[in-house]
What does this fold into?
Amino acid sequence: CQYGYSIHWGGPILTKSSKLNHVGINSSYNEYMALHFCIKQVVWLRQFMIEMGLAQYATKPTLILADNRQANNLCTEDIITQGNMYFRTGYHYNKEAVNDRYVCIDYLDTSNNPSDVHTKSLARVKIQQHRPFLHGHATRPFDLPQ
It folds into this structure.
């Protein structure tokens, strides 16, 4: 399964497209694993900024936008279901990062998700929609409220 993300700070500073390390049980698990890799990068970047003397930019949790509500909710809820009881424990770092206020996860509708260019074949109109944000010429994904 392919995953991808873009981390922006005024413009893109880190972009990744890769295959997941493990077979996902369902789509929520795949999205939860993708969040895990993105969150690890965000926490590393926050720590790097602090080491460089830029701690004033890392005082609030970093907003992560993702398009799977179940995976997003798993980052904040401690509930075991038939669907998530077999998730590998290492991926629950997501919960720790949210609890430690390094990140906060919010929903972004799939139709407005610029990371889709990293994971699937998109129509030209969708690529053109996301291009300004992914190239750093727009500060927010298409049609995202301020």
